[in-house]
Write a structure and sequence with these properties.
mainly alpha; flat; 8 helices
Length: 291
């Protein structure tokens, strides 16, 4: 794999990130059913222009482009004899996740935004992004003279990634159940920290408790990396984790205070996926894997 191919893969990962944000925009703008059929939109390849319709239509177009790029880039990895089998498995896993994501995308429309399907769509989308980012990092490491392997940070990095991914899914459940404003105050909900753990209010409370837990994990992880791991790139990433998690908490509070406006909702999603990307990168550096 040459440097140009690795650069293409980088732009491909950025494209997936943008697709996730665009999907969040579709939901935040209540445009998920603006194209009531699938894979066409009002029975046409290119529908008549309406703002909400084109939010969903452009989302589908970008998804199609990402699909083509995934097939081209990942099959090249799979059939390249010089690439390690571990990276080929990641590329193959990304292809399988893509197939599942396409199916879930269609079901999201056909089943009228059923919350389990919407959350599954987010789960597969962020997993697909994580697999693709891992493949890119492995390809990049192959071209780089730097070799980072910090096995002692591996368990903590796994916990960090699992916590952030789980919190993203909790956020997806809150959004797909339209439970973002069932607790209109912060930090209390109905005058209590934990009024209930049942129903939509309980879901919102669990999401908030998850946020406190993830923030604590990030703070402890960053302290550990800064104090115990002598790798400058991991220290920088840990500092970014701290900056982004406090930004995420602030945006989450503003989301409630301003009644979940689309711009803040999508920013909240973007920060969450950015935290996920950093966690994937830190885990990759812990393993020291290259293609």
């Amino acid at each position: 794999m040459n440097e140009r191919y690795v650069r293409y893969y980088k732009f491909f990962c950025i494209g997936i990130f943008c697709l996730i944000l665009l999907g969040g925009s579709v939901r935040a703008m209540d445009a998920g059913l603006s194209c009531p059929d699938w894979p066409l939109c009002f029975g046409r390849f290119i529908p008549n222009y309406q703002p909400q319709v084109y939010f969903e239509f452009i989302h589908r177009v970008l998804a199609g482009l990402i699909t083509l790029a995934t097939v081209f880039l990942n099959f090249r990895i799979i059939f390249d004899r010089s690439i390690k089998w571990s990276v080929k498995w990641v590329a193959g896993g990304a292809l399988l996740l893509l197939v599942g994501q396409i199916v879930m995308g269609g079901l999201t429309v056909l089943l009228k935004l059923k919350y389990e399907i919407v959350t599954g769509h987010l789960a597969l989308g962020t997993a697909f992004f994580s697999f693709s980012l891992w493949a890119y990092l492995s390809l990049k490491a192959r071209l780089s003279a730097e070799r980072t392997e910090v096995r002692k940070a591996l368990p903590a990095s796994l916990v960090l990634l699992a916590a952030i991914y789980g919190q993203i899914l909790l956020g997806g459940l809150v959004a797909s159940n339209y439970a973002g404003l069932v607790c209109p105050n912060f930090p209390l909900c109905e005058g209590k920290l934990i009024p209930t753990l049942h129903g939509l209010i309980g879901l919102q409370v669990i999401h908030r408790l998850g946020a406190y837990t993830v923030a604590t994990i990030i703070i402890l992880y960053s302290i550990y990396i800064l104090a115990r791991v002598p790798v400058s790139s991991m220290k920088r990433l840990s500092m970014w984790l701290l900056v982004l998690v406090f930004a995420q908490i602030f945006v989450g509070v503003m989301n409630v205070k301003f009644l979940t406006p689309p711009i803040i909702t999508v920013t909240h999603l973007g920060l969450a996926v950015s935290l996920l990307a950093i966690a994937v990168t830190l885990l990759h550096k812990s393993t020291g894997e290259s293609a």
